[in-house]
Amino acid sequence: MQKMVRTGLPFKLHQERHHHGNIGWLRASVLGANDGLLSTASLLAGVAAGRASHEQILLAGVAALVAGAFAMAAGEYVSVSSQADTQLADLEIERRELKKNPDKELLELRDIYMVRGLDEALAQQVAAQLMQRDALAAHARDELGLTEMAKARPGEAALASAASFVCGALFPVLIAAFVFHSEVLPVLFTTTILLLVILGAVAAKAGGASMMKGALRVVVWGALSMIATSLIGHLLGQAAI
């Protein structure tokens, strides 16, 4: 949010830092890293508990990393592209309405400012000046709620999701590659829980929330996921003997 600070003429824009500015990148990054770490670690825990060989565990980890990264990128791209299409469609509707009936759109913008607390005369003046400068931008921002910060960027979202997934999944794969076969399962559990604590705390800190709550909620679900897959892998491994 920009705040006008008078330091002598002309006014100087002072950029305040708010947590909502992190929401766009934070969502994709946290989701990707958490999913990469947890899904890959849980898969490897299940495979390891099922008495798979060292090579089989590593192969499963690499396959999960590659497939998961592409799946995250594709899913995020499709989702954000749909959002972008909706935004563009809404802007096109506003563009047609501004061309067809600018006076009505002026009154519509004036009414928005009146609802926000301006008196009619001032609201009319503000609406007229903003529409004279950039009518579409004024309606996009104040009627549709579309700002540069809220603009959908499919490519960026897809790359962020894929990259963060790989960063998260890389740790379980490295464990599968370099830890002794007999120690893979306990090291996977310990490392994954520790990383989930860090990931949850950092995400909560960036979003302005409680670090303790952020860490706790991802650890609980992470532990449940790994326990469940390990149990299933163990049972299926025993049945296959």
Please give a structural write-up.
Mean pLDDT is about 80; it is low at about 1-15 and about 15-20. The chain contains seven helices and two strands, in the order ββααααααα. It has a two-stranded antiparallel sheet with strand order 1-2. It is mainly α and about 240 residues long. Helix 1 runs antiparallel to helix 6 (about 185-205), helix 2 packs antiparallel against helix 4 (about 120-140) and helix 6 (about 185-205) packs antiparallel against helix 7 (about 210-240).
Strand order across the largest sheet: 1-2
Largest sheet: 2 strands, antiparallel
Radius of gyration: 25 Å
SSE order:
EEHHHHHHH
Structural class by SSE content: mainly alpha
Shape, principal axes of CA atoms: elongated
**Intertermini distance:** 63 Å
Query: Mean pLDDT across all residues, rounded?
Result: 80
Q: How many domains make up the coordinates? A: 1
Structure, briefly:
This protein is mostly helical and 241 residues long. Helix content is 78%, strand content 3%. It comes from Acidithiobacillus ferrivorans.
Which descriptors apply to this entry?
transmembrane helix, 241 residues, VIT family protein, 7 helices, disordered N terminus
List the helices and strands and how they pair.
Elements: E1 2-5, E2 12-15, H1 23-49, H2 54-100, H3 102-115, H4 120-142, H5 154-178, H6 184-206, H7 211-240
Antiparallel strand pairs: 1-2
GO molecular function, one term: manganese ion transmembrane transporter activity
Pfam families: VIT1 (PF01988)
Transmembrane segments: 157-178, 184-204, 216-236
